[in-house]
Amino acid sequence: MRFIPSEYRPPISSAEFVASPSENEEERFEVGVLFVGAGPAGLAGAIRLAQLLQSAPEVQEQLGEMPIVVLEKGKYPGAHLLSGAVVHPGAFHKLFPELSPQDLPFYGPVEDEALYLLTEKKALKVPFMPPSMRNHGNYVASLSRIGQWLAGKAEELGVMILPETAAVKVLVDDQRVLGVRTDDKGLDRNGRPMGNYEPGSDMLARVTVVGEGTLGHLTQTILDLFRIERENPQIYALGVKEIWEVPRPLHRVIHTMGWPLRTGKKYREFGGSFMYPMGRDRVSIGLVVGMDYADASLSVHDLLQQFKLHPLVKGILDGGKRLEKGWGAKTIPEGGFYSLPRQLHVPGALFIGDAAGFVNVPALKGIHYAMWSGILAAEAIFEVLKAGNDPQSPHTLGIFDAKIKNSFIWKDLYRVRNMRQAFQYGFFTGSLLAGLMSLTGGAFPGGKFSVKPDGEHPVFAGQRNYPRPDNQYIFDKLSSVYASGNRSRDTMPNHLRIRTDVPREIGEMWVQMCPALVYEWTEADGEKQLTINAPNCVHCGAITAKGGRFTPPEGGNGPEYEET
């Protein structure tokens, strides 16, 4: 039998995440421009706006005592950031033209690269790199380190960053976004105040820039509230990553396709791996799998462990060890051009970075698109304020949409608009179509390939087998959660919404899907029940794509990434 995850969504209304500003002035803070999320998009935007305000003190004066504020739900900027990552340096050169590549937070340039098609025992090197995947001129980096570095640069410019602060509701009045409400602190498992209770606050802003990342809670709320649609639904992938200390340096960037994913159309398994050098003695290794897969027994974390048994990978990792803080997971928006919101602004707010969906899947690139979207948002906001216009009036912020549509972001995503969608027809057909699209700049076969949301694809009860953990080379999920730096409070309220009265296949899908062992079968009165271990959560967001809903936990909880 097959089951459709979206038919088992918990009852959730966007209205519960919308509020009017408090009338109590002690619970309100007025800021100029509020960036929600200290990721590459939000921090690049905050830095660019601060630079522009330096040349226009009269505009900065309009924004009050706190002209630019960035909210970050993690323990510190970078704590929740994870990516491959090979980075195009263009946005850094825009923000810091005086700095050389050696001054930027990179491990080094891409010296060489290779693409392999894997079977279980063999690695067949593809004789040429697809044009979209070529990385000449790019740099290997850690996104967490980039976040920490950008945060420091932002603070040098006077930007106020508030870590451990989650935005849980959007403040709306008369169809205008006025800011956000932050999370309450010190609630017990049942949501009751404890002795250290601190209520959240209203952060009122002239402009709210939503850059909270993939499957963002506020993004979904605002899109629903303002009835902003997409031509295609957004679709996602889940990536799991490890960082290893190795005895031999890796001198090239490696990507693979094929095994351990299956190529048959009925499995709907799209994805691949990466292995990147992080200096002379470290390697990052990861596996990314589309969330539209059909086999309920698929576990991306365990597939990564299986992947490490391949001779190609063992030859790189042999004699090494996983770092103590060397594991993480996150989702990636993969829908591309047709999955962007039809409108990137509402009165008083903008969407940037992964929140909007600016990811080029064939190129495996999202960071510099995110940063440039933040830069363009800052320039649009500055122009609106300098002209004396009200950013909370209808369509005033439409200048941001125009800037995006006139940028390389729009052109790049349009050229590859159907490439990810082509793989819904299976690996071999998808590869053929993607090749033709690459050769013709997307002109052939043209049109729009429609897709369904990940949760609307039926799943079946599969029987995948994974290698047994030894916690030296093959790791279980629980030890990996510890390796993420997760120190979430055990008594925190549950921030995950799922139904527990679901068919066993749906419950098993969630158990296997989650890389952090959040969902688990327990026995009560002789019957198995699905339970939630909320403190394990590393905020990857996968549950939202596959039938549940992630809402922000208490700020400061979750992973504490350092080099992911």
Summarize the structure.
With 564 residues, the chain is of the alpha+beta class. The protein has a domain of 220 residues: FAD/NAD(P)-binding domain (3-Layer(bba) Sandwich).
Structure, described:
The protein has a domain at 30-83 and 147-233 and 337-415: FAD/NAD(P)-binding domain. 25% of the residues lie in helices and 24% in strands. The protein is built from 15 helices and 27 strands. The strands form 7 sheets. Strands 2, 3, 4, 10, 11, 12, 15, 21 and 22 form a 9-stranded mixed sheet that branches. Strands 8-7-17-18-19-16-20 form a 7-stranded mixed sheet. The longest helix has 20 residues, at 367-386. It starts with a strand and ends in a 14-residue tail after the last strand.
List keywords for this structure.
9-stranded mixed β-sheet, 7-stranded mixed β-sheet, single chain, 24% strand, FAD/NAD(P)-binding domain, 25% helix, 27 strands, alpha+beta, 15 helices, 564 residues
Give the overall pLDDT as a whole number.
96
What class do helices, strands and sheet pairing give? Answer: alpha+beta
Number of extended strands = 27
User: What can be said about the biggest beta sheet?
Assistant: 9 strands, mixed
Helix-strand layout with pairing:
Blueprint: E1 2-3, E2 18-19, E3 28-36, H1 40-54, H2 57-62, E4 68-71, E5 86-87, H3 90-95, E6 106-109, E7 113-118, E8 123-125, E9 139-141, H4 143-156, E10 160-162, E11 167-173, E12 176-182, E13 185-187, E14 193-198, E15 202-210, H5 217-225, E16 236-245, E17 253-258, E18 271-277, E19 282-290, H6 300-307, H7 311-317, E20 321-333, E21 345-346, E22 349-351, H8 367-386, H9 398-405, H10 408-415, H11 419-422, H12 427-440, E23 459-460, H13 477-483, E24 496-497, H14 504-513, E25 519-524, E26 527-532, H15 542-545, E27 549-550
Parallel strand pairs: 2-11, 3-4, 3-15, 4-10, 7-17, 15-22
Antiparallel strand pairs: 1-23, 5-9, 6-9, 7-8, 11-12, 12-15, 13-14, 16-19, 16-20, 17-18, 18-19, 21-22, 24-27, 25-26
Helix pairs in contact: 1-4, 1-8, 8-9
